[in-house]
Design goal:
This protein has a domain of about 120 residues: GMP Synthetase, Chain A, domain 3 (2-Layer Sandwich), CATH 3.30.300. The protein has 21 helices and 30 strands. The strands form 9 sheets. Strands 5-4-17-16-18-19-20 form a 7-stranded mixed beta sheet, sandwiched between helices. Strand 1 and strand 2 form a beta hairpin. It binds adenosine-5'-monophosphate-propyl ester. The site of adenosine-5'-monophosphate-propyl ester (PRX) has 22 residues, from helix 12, strand 20, strand 24 and strand 25.
């Protein structure tokens, strides 16, 4: 990948950018780096609305950080109520478009009303600060409404992406010991209903901890409600209106005074073991950094229409559909369905219709759209766009150029944003208008973010050398813990380089100090910008009665970046491999979710292992990537296995 092509910021954009030029930006960065805690504390005092001020910027007992100690705050209040007082009551907060074409525009005043009413519903059912709610919903406004209502009361929410299976949902409900599930009958995707409530019923089978299930009616299909446990969202709201005094009080359900470090949400992400990790984010620091990155990275103005195409079930949706933009008082576009429904022009039709000015999507989506040709974007007026964003994986130069030329018409800077579920918000990205762009590089760490690249001993590697990407100083939106598993938190993130956060990514820095993120160094794959664990898919596969062993690796894929490839050995028996391949793909879909289904299943007689019995995925990765095996294989127990696997590939 070449670093030589540099794009100066579009001159029109640069003229009006909020950060004026590289030297101004360097100054902010140097000021921040000289005392990061003080830097963030100044911003926190200025940018957030506090019920009680904090008295200490940071309490850092590595690896446990507490930001803005002693402060009292409420995330929902900061995302909703304060905008009513700031003259934004009639400003649209959410512009929502359903896949079938239905639409809703919700102003900040209306959002306040809807959130307050739903918070009252939760309160009336007996839920309170510290309880856990699992939210399993399609991309309808009631999803952010439910999240904000939880935040209003201090209920810790955990959104589970609607594509996850009943099994995966159950595992998360159990891990959190959640007492309520908020869901819907279903949602629309590619013209078909994706049912959700039946998966909740399966997940809750004989699980006693969940007292209530609230079901939002989206599709209207026949839905069974379990007596005493399940309630329609609209029925519970209607009950509020039975008594005028209750209805009136519900319009103003009070936002609770919560500690800065009160847990805001837990979001599960794949790690290097079979069990997903519950990433814990807390209130004030998370809110501050998602808000500041809206300003620095997206150059947000009051008049902007901001559209992030992620699903709220992933961290990108949490931070850049809900908390960041709403804390900033922005107008957010939210779309329920698929980018190719009813045709490949859907994204561009929405951009034109809603006059989207900032558009944030993934390289996978861009590559899928490139394949359909330029006629789709060319059929629409995209002149409202002024800034484009990318997230989830490195953006390859070809996709970057297309995004820049065909979508941005060479007017719009592209912000390539590197971050993770654990970082909570964007960490490495250009300040558009100030930082010159290089396709494929996320450019520079943001102010107050002390990122570095080190070798296996934790020593900085110097320019143009590959190493591990780490973060040296705590930052406000950092993961605080792994839910219920502090040991894993310490081991996973804080043990490789003492005192520093280990990202699990490889990167190098060029002579201009630009960061080039190269991908994961652990057993985590990145498929369509979603993180998948090899171990999680492997343990799903070995649950199948026919499977003896399984090893999963990511293989390069033109559209999705990586695709799941599973090597499988079978137990004794009379199996039809052809049928079994399909069956195993479905099986993984049922155990985890359709998005985790292997693209390819390869049956083999044995797997390459070290003498101590560990599967050498590195070799399998080489087979699917370069179709050959190089490197050190001296620890292999059975070298013939590799020879067979390689030969098998050559025959294909
Ligand atoms: O490998 C990096 C890649 O995605 C991982 C984080 O995945 P997740 O927690 O699911 O969050 C995705 C959205 C923030 C990282 O460890 N990644 C994310 N953004 C980029 C990226 N790799 C390169 N460039 C990016 N802009």
């Amino acid at each position: 990948m070449s670093d030589s092509k540099v794009y100066s910021p579009g001159s029109e954009f640069a003229k009006n950018a909020q950060i004026q030029g590289m030297s101004a930006y360097r100054e902010i960065q140097e000021h921040a780096a000289s005392d990061p805690a003080k830097f963030w504390a100044e911003l926190a005092s200025r940018e957030l609305t506090w019920f009680e001020p904090f008295h200490q910027p940071l309490d850092w007992q590595p690896p446990f950080a507490k930001w803005f100690v002693g402060g009292k705050i409420n995330a929902c209040y900061n995302c909703v109520d304060r905008h009513l007082l700031a003259g934004r009551a009639d400003k649209p907060a959410l512009i929502w478009e359903g896949e079938p074409g239905d639409e809703r525009v919700i102003t900040y005043r209306e959002l306040h009303r809807l959130v307050s009413r739903f918070a009252t519903v939760l309160q009336n059912l007996g839920y309170k600060t510290g309880d856990r709610a699992v939210i399993y919903m399609p991309m309808v406004p009631e999803l952010p409404i439910a999240m904000l209502a939880c935040a209003r009361l201090g209920i810790i929410h955990s959104v589970v992406f609607g594509g996850f299976s009943a099994e995966a949902l159950r595992a998360r409900i159990e891990d959190l010991d959640a007492s309520i599930v908020i869901t819907a009958d279903g949602g629309w995707r590619r013209g078909k209903e994706v049912r959700l409530k039946p998966a909740v019923d399966t997940a809750l089978h004989d699980l006693l901890g969940v007292k209530h299930v609230i079901v939002y009616r989206r599709t209207g299909s026949a839905t069974e409600l379990k007596d005493g446990r399940d309630f329609w969202w609209h029925d519970l709201e209607r009950h509020l209106d039975d008594h005028a005094s209750v209805a009136q009080a519900a319009e103003h359900c009070e936002a609770k005074d919560l500690d800065s470090e009160h847990p805001l949400y837990v979001l599960y992400t794949s790690g290097t073991t079979g069990k997903p990790k519950g990433i814990l984010h807390t209130t004030a620091g998370y809110l501050l950094q998602t808000l500041m990155t809206m300003k620095w990275v997206f150059d947000l103005r009051d008049e902007d229409i901001f559209w992030c195409t992620a699903d709220i079930g992933w961290v990108t949706g949490h931070s850049y559909i809900v908390y960041g933009p709403l804390a900033a008082g922005a107008t957010v576009v939210m779309y329920e369905g698929a980018p190719d429904y009813p045709d490949f022009g859907r994204f561009w039709q929405i951009v034109e219709k809603r006059k989207v000015s900032i558009f944030y999507t993934s390289p996978t989506a861009i590559r899928a759209l490139i394949r359909q040709g330029d006629r789709w974007p060319e059929a629409h007026d995209l002149s409202s766009l002024r800034l484009l964003g990318s997230v989830g994986e490195p953006i390859n130069p070809a996709a970057w150029e297309w995004y820049h030329n065909v979508i941005g018409k060479q007017r719009c800077p592209i912000v390539d944003t590197w971050w993770q579920t654990e970082t909570g918000s964007i960490m490495i990205a250009p300040a558009p208008g100030a930082v010159p762009l290089k396709p494929g590089s996320a450019t520079l760490p943001l102010p107050g973010i002390l990122a570095d690249i080190v070798d296996s001993k934790g020593e900085p590697v110097g320019n143009n050398r590959e190493g591990y990407l780490i973060v040296r100083h705590p930052w406000p939106s950092m993961v605080r813990n792994v839910w219920g598993d502090p040991k894993r938190f310490v081991e996973q993130y804080w043990s490789r380089v003492p005192g520093s956060y280990f990202t699990g990514d490889a990167a190098r820095r060029d002579d201009d100090g630009y960061f080039w993120v190269l991908g994961r160094v652990d057993d985590v794959m990145n498929v369509s910008g979603h993180r998948l664990s090899t171990m999680e898919i492997e343990s799903a596969l070995v649950h199948h009665p026919a499977v003896a062993e399984a090893a999963v690796v990511g293989k390069p894929h033109e559209i999705t970046g990586q695709a799941v490839c599973a090597f499988v050995t079978l137990k004794q028996g009379d199996w039809s491999r052809e049928k079994l391949g399909d069956e195993l793909r479905q099986w993984v879909g049922r155990e985890i979710g359709a998005f985790a289904r292997p693209e390819e299943i390869r049956f083999t007689d044995g797997l390459p292992k070290t003498r101590s019995g560990k599967i050498m995925r590195r070799l399998l990765r080489e087979i699917v990537t370069t179709h050959a095996v190089t490197g050190d294989v001296t620890t292999l127990e059975d070298l013939t296995v590799i020879a067979k696997l390689s030969a098998q590939h050559d025959e294909e």
